[in-house]
Amino acid sequence: MPIQILPARLANQIAAGEVVERPASVVKELVENSLDSGATSIDIEIEKGGHKKILIRDNGSGIPQDELPLALSRHATSKIAKLDDLEAINSLGFRGEALASISSVARLTLSSKPKEQSQAWQAHCEGRDMQVQLNPVAHPDGSSVDVVDLFFNTPARRKFLKTEKTEFSHIDEVVRRIALSRFDVSFSLKHNGKLLRRYPAVKLQNTELKRISAICGNAFSEHCIELNSQYQQLELKGWLAQPDQMASHGGFQYFYVNGRMMRDKLINHAVRQAFEGLVGDEVSLSYVLYLSIEPSQIDVNVHPAKHEVRFHQARLVHDFIYRALTDSLNQFFKQGQQSSTPEAKVLPQAIPKHDYIQPLQRASAATMVHEQLPRHSGFGTQHPSASRNLTSKDKAQHLVNSSEVINQASVNYQQLMTPAQLGKPKVAEQSHAAIGQWLQINDNQLLVSIAQQFYLLETQALYLAVLSQLYSDTKPVSQPLLMPISISATPELLAKAKSLYQPLIENSVEIGWTPNRIILRKVPAGLRQLRWAECLEHVLQCKATDSKEVCEHLLSCIASNQEISVNQIQELWQQFVHISKDLEHAMSRIGKVVPLQELLSTHENR
After folding, report:
1. How far is CA 94 from each of CA 91, 99, 499, rounded to the nearest angstrom?
2. Bridge-partner residues for 522, per DSSP?
3. Sorting pLDDT into bands at 50, 70 and 90, what band is 605?
4. Starting from the edge strand earliest in sequence, which strands make up the sheet with 107-113, in order?
5. How confident is the model at residue 30 (pLDDT cuts 50, 70, 90)?
6. Residues with Cβ < 8 Å from 457, sequence gap 6 or more?
7. Helix, strand, or coil here: 20?
């Protein structure tokens, strides 16, 4: 078959495969166009679940007569004009594909009248080349899009549609989501001539809970936690269901980025991580959250239906969302303990100290911080001392009374996010003679000179000494892995993992298991970049079950599996000097004396 240009209708039908999934997709695209036109009132009429008819009517700016033919053409839009516009999109639509795609798989009629135009005009296209026909029509200011017989010319697509009730439920959910994104716009939804939903415009900011209540229910609106956090150009505001209320009503997750509804994996992970330890994995979270960010910092052109975005600073956004939610939950439990009035459910504006938000980096041993967080058991287990489903009182006690979480939250998180400087200021005050000098002689060994004495030192021994000192002070906080690691399990290894579960929990490592796999979920803070897939099996070879002995075995495994660069050696050495009260004695414990000075003297005498 020779290479040829596809007919316009066929090209549009191919594009419709991405844009028009079901009737709800049509409603979403058309309502977003109405919002982009500045509409303050949008009426939606549906027949037969969208199979028969979809009518969207708005009072927006309208489309001039001479632009109507272009409106039904592919890649024709008024929202972007050049490449730079694509990098800072403020509108919901921008590709110019929706109307052309819909008109290729349904009978579409577009009627519009701008305010300054005396006559309204109607456009529809038909034929192989989709020629647009214009006719005068009576119509108020604004636009109407009438879509009839969806997929009438693509039977293969039509047979995949569900029942009328199912398709309308998807439309209803789309309208709910859009109504929560624009409180200043009124919406109405009819099905088969019956008015089912009406969301009046909300003029005042403090009355937004009226629409929240109409969409999410009174149980949510009356007991939700309000938050409003800012950091640089990022802002997160909205409402959360209380952890105790999560299981009492159906879960819903409404998240918006610059007014655009999102189902993004990074966002979902950050939200779920904030609730970790407060609700079980089986509990469906409920929230309505709005993230505002500079348009130039996101790329919305990564998903056909625009449900996902790509953040230029993904780690920063993830950590901001996580920290903002955690601060609001902490403040809620703190307030709940201090006041017994049930009305005090909505928090005042929470603006945490976000100077500690930094991208996670590969950290050395000194990065580990000391903070206690809620613990929970692994897959298929529930240890009595590590219950996930805490009571409300237990949560308040745990979150409020913990000075690490409340009084020092920003300090601890700063340490968690930023590699420590390893005590360099204190070390710098000492002379070179006092702290010694070292020379790396190969990948695994150092030659150290202290007070006219030479020592041969293994780099792993130096790393282990620093780790041991940090662990002896206090245990570091557990940090969830972004992607849990699992290894295959024999019956013997599985039994060993179960016996080591509690000792590892006490040493900031959390494991879980299935009948055939062992899963690593949390590790000590600052050590997420370690090669845990290789290290885990060695950790599980520990013969002891005493917490202290397991700790020694764990640190030995960590040290033996860590690749240490020259810069890290310098940091480890400075930290070792800082923690050693008697440097010569400490060095004699981990190094081997080398009679290098005697050998040099003998050589000189010769």
Report:
1. 7, 12, 57
2. 480, 510
3. low
4. 131-137, 120-126, 107-113, 142-148, 53-58, 41-47, 186-191, 194-199
5. very high
6. 438, 445, 446, 447, 448, 587, 590, 591, 592
7. coil
